[in-house]
Amino acid sequence: MNDLHGLATRALHLLDPEDAHTAAIAALKLGLGPRAPACDPILATELSGIALPNPVGLAPGFDKNAEVFAPMLRAGFGFVECGTVTPLAQAGNPRPRLFRLSEDRAVINRMGFNNAGVEAFAGRLARRGAGVVGANIGANKESSDRVGDYVIALSRVWGLCDYYTVNISSPNTPGLRALQTKAALEELLGRIVEAGGTLPDEGGRPIFLKVAPDLEDAEIEAIAEVVDRNDFNGVIVSNTTISRPELRSRHRGETGGLSGAPLKNLATEVLRRFREVAAPDLVLIGAGGIASGADAYARIRAGASAVQLYSALVYEGPGLVSRINHDLAQRLRADGFRSVKEAVGAR
User: Fold this and answer.
1) Tens digits of residue pLDDT in 263-272
2) Is the pLDDT of residue 202 over 80?
3) In total, how many domains does the chain have?
4) How many helices (H) and strands (E) does the chain have?
5) Which residues are designated catalytic?
6) Which CATH number do you get for residue 265?
7) Are 171 and 108 a contacting pair, CB within 8 Å?
8) Using CA atoms, how far apart are residues 25 and 142, in angstroms rounded to an integer?
């Protein structure tokens, strides 16, 4: 069956990248995705109080409209983050806006938060079953009050997910990354915390902040300080990068966010820096360039309690997550760890 899914992944590369993604979503909705075996018990862990069968999550962007979180959980992901969702439906940027950089094992996207809006998103989440699912929320491109958009989206999905992520780091919505500055972040997080205080008590479901990898040390320190002061539970490090390391693909000059293998070292280093300056109880989730058990393990030892991936699926297919989990379990045992939690930050 894994050979069949690998063949399907190669066949999808004959299509335009965005058409291939649409076809993959359709196939998953038909039940054609893989079914992973039960997780090795050594991989069981927790993320800010949430029990996970394993620490490998699906990053947002794949399941923008909360359509296929169940099949992706069955494929072996320990948790799935849906979105990014905005209050109102929006078409996103003009096509083409998604590019495979096959020679670099990378992707460039300038999607622009294309999604069907929070009402449709919330309706699907209201019918979900077992498994850990998060919601990644954003602001509409034409909004006159982007901070207000985050409050609206959070209020609508409140109680429907296990955790929530505030995405202020996409490079494809003009001006969005400016919310990472200290003053803007203070206002944003303050209003979100205030809004959360008026919503029904959901047992303290965590809220995370997703940041860019293109941050200077002073910016990392300021973000860690503001996050801690506003009692956010954690930081996801990181989103796509606007930097361009040496790339071979003919698409290397496309504008947008770069993800995949070339992001790995930058994202790992920014994660390490957050771990050095953040409060000890601040949870970190590692993302960016993770494509193997070795990559996941390195990010955990750098300080991540869990990891997320997406771009590697473009090249490896949905069976990748089972291979990562198998390898991660072997690496933990080989180094004498009894659990994922013991390995977090153990350089």
Assistant:
1) 999 999 999 9
2) no
3) 1
4) 12, 13
5) 170
6) 3.20.20.70
7) no
8) 28
